[in-house]
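Example S7 (structure tokens).
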């Protein structure tokens, strides 16, 4: 692996000036023993709290909604064509390629035969995909990092299950009241239910603060949640599953931690990979990993709730090794593993897990199930397929970029 200095990423934008000096002197990713970490954190919080008390305008200020651009204020089904056309095109083209290959779902090894059989129809669709990618991957369509604000965050939630829409509506409404939430976008990916449904009075997503928009997607691709979006105005996005609710202090803490670690993915659900020297392959670990004599370590965080640089959405869609997005559409899994690979490779560090209060506000689902993939999440081979992804992605990356860390950020 080359060093993180030559990652090819644009330089990080200088943080905007604020009245409160940013506390420095604490970093994670080292190998501090847990008690030391706690003491450091306690000190940090006392320090930042006393700074906040003296500060007339805290960094996390309440949003003045009249300052929102009109395009963002247009709530629910109203989509401005300029914003969504290209995203729809690229999700459309990726869905048509995935549907042709998923029909032959006998085994993963059948992908080569299915791609050859559909080669006649794929030439026109691949031309369309290339045209869509040229638009979506035109960096100047999106604000530069310097134009984005880092004192608020944007929440992106894919929606699919109509049974869970009441929970999603309640959760988004709650989170819209957090002053550090700039906007919430529900990416509606259920092709059977038109997004216009959410314009009806008793189906609307009501807000208690930040605007909530429901954006119809043209496919159920897992890559949709990582598409770059022209309307995102913050330098950090939160990717969430539709059953997740983070309480205000947990999310505010995660945002603070991210601002001190903006190259890393910050999340609540750590997982690990494990190497098997006897057969030279990797497997996926459902939990953090504890190897003999070691403390628990992890190398990935799940998309159930993750914070990451908005710029990484563009990198995911436009700079990943070719074949990754396609693999994800074919397996209907592993987009989060791919994002962890990409960021680990760029940043040369592990993600950072925060300890916080999150609930699934609805039905309890077992770990790792993403239930908007109705019918797929229940597959018994979920973990085998996650392990297969690890090995497949390591091939595409030409090595294993994931790094372990033993540290977590713990609120005082
Ligand atoms: C991994 O990172 C290095 C250095 O930043 C970069 O040159 C390389 O292209 C990246 N690999 C992939 C597969 O993205
Ligand atoms: C919000 O912004 C508008 C226009 O910039 C201004 O007139 C108004 O006073 C602001 N409201 C608050 C509560 O700051
Ligand atoms: C990229 O997008 C910008 C802004 O929308 C546009 O002016 C430019 O022509 C586009 N470039 C290409 C190569 O399409
Ligand atoms: C949503 O919130 C309302 C009002 O607080 C409550 O009555 C309702 O039971 C909630 N629905 C779900 C599914 O949690
Ligand atoms: C490699 O070995 C591990 C542990 O014995 C096993 O779980 C895994 O399935 C093996 N992988 C392959 C590709 O054989």
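Recovered sequence:
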């Amino acid at each position: 692996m080359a060093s993180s200095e030559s990652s090819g990423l644009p330089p990080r934008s200088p943080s905007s000036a604020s009245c409160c000096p940013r506390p420095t002197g604490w970093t994670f990713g080292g190998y501090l023993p847990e008690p030391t970490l706690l003491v450091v954190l306690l000190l940090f919080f006392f320090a930042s709290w006393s700074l906040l008390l003296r500060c007339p305008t805290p960094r996390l200020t309440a949003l003045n909604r009249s300052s929102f651009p009109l395009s963002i204020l247009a709530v629910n089904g109203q989509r401005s064509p300029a914003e969504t056309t290209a995203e729809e095109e690229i999700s459309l083209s990726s869905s048509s390629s995935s549907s042709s290959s998923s029909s032959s779902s006998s085994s993963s090894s059948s992908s080569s035969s299915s791609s050859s059989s559909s080669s006649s129809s794929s030439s026109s669709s691949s031309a369309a995909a290339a045209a869509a990618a040229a638009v979506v991957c035109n960096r100047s369509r999106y604000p530069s990092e310097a134009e984005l604000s880092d004192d608020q965050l944007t929440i992106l939630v894919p929606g699919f299950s109509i049974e869970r829409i009441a929970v999603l509506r309640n959760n988004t409404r709650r989170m819209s009241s957090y002053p550090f939430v700039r906007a919430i976008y529900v990416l509606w990916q259920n092709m059977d239910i038109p997004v216009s449904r959410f314009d009806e009075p008793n189906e609307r997503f009501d807000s208690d603060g930040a605007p909530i928009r429901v954006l119809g997607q043209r496919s159920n691709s897992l890559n949709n949640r990582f598409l770059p979006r022209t309307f995102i105005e913050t330098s950090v996005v939160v990717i969430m599953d539709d059953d997740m609710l983070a309480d205000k202090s947990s999310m505010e803490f995660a945002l603070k931690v991210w601002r001190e670690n903006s190259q890393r993915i910050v999340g609540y659900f750590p997982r690990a990979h494990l190497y098997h020297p006897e057969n030279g392959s990797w497997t996926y670990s459902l939990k953090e990993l504890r190897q003999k004599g070691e403390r628990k370590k992890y190398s990935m965080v799940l998309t159930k709730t993750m914070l990451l640089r908005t710029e990484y959405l563009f990198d995911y869609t436009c700079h990943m090794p070719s074949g990754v997005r396609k693999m994800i559409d074919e397996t209907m899994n592993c987009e989060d593993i791919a994002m962890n690979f990409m960021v680990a490779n760029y940043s040369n560090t592990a993600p950072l897990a925060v300890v916080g209060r999150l609930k699934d506000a609805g039905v309890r689902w077992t770990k790792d199930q993403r239930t908007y993939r109705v019918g797929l999440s229940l597959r018994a081979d979920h973990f085998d397929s996650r392990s297969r992804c690890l090995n497949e992605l390591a091939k595409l990356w030409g090595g294993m970029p994931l790094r372990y860390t033993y540290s977590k950020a713990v609120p005082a």
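Notes on this example. The domain at 144-409 is CATH 3.90.550.10 (Spore Coat Polysaccharide Biosynthesis Protein SpsA; Chain A).
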